[in-house]
Amino acid sequence: PNGDGLNDEFIAKNNAGTELIELVIANRWGEVVFKATNYFDGWNGHHKGEDADLGYYYYFFYFLCSSTGKEYLRKGDVLLIR
Predict the structure, then answer these.
(1) How far is CA 10 from CA 47, 50, 69, in A?
(2) What does the angle CA 16 – CA 22 – CA 28 come to, to the nearest 5 degrees?
(3) Stated pTM of the model
(4) What is the torsional sign of CA 18, 38, 6, 52?
(5) What string of DSSP letters covers the chain?
(6) Dmax of the chain from CA atoms?
(7) 39-71: per-residue pLDDT in tens?
(8) Is 43 in contact with 32 (CB distance < 8 Å)?
(9) Could you tell me if 43 and 33 are in contact, meaning their C-beta atoms sit under 8 angstroms apart?
(10) How far apart are the first and last CA of the chain?
């Protein structure tokens, strides 16, 4: 995120038939740096009001499938650069 309006937030995309339970971003030590419970909130690369350290962060995307009622987890990593 550098304020140019492109890729300034890491955000969960809303797919038809899914409901966001929680999006969690953690640093390499497992410290949670961001949490969201709706699709409109995204991580802007800050933690405790300051620019977060550059590097890899891990996301955990918990969502509910509306048609089956089953909960799912998708996880991966994101590289924070400026």
Answers:
(1) 13, 16, 26
(2) 125
(3) 0.87
(4) negative
(5) --SSSSS--EEPPPPTTEEEEEEEEE-TT--EEEEESSTT-EE-SEETTEEPPSEEEEEEEEEEETTT--EEEEEEEEEE--
(6) 40
(7) 889 999 999 999 999 999 999 999 999 899 999
(8) no
(9) yes
(10) 6
Phi–psi pair at 22, nearest 5 degrees: -165, 140
Residue-level length of the chain: 82
**Which two three-digit tokens encode residue 28?**
């390499």
Which residue is it, tokens 């996301």? Answer: 59
Q: What is the mean pLDDT of residues 1-20?
A: 85
The pLDDT score that the predictor gives to residue 43 is 96
Residue matched to tokens 């802007």? 44
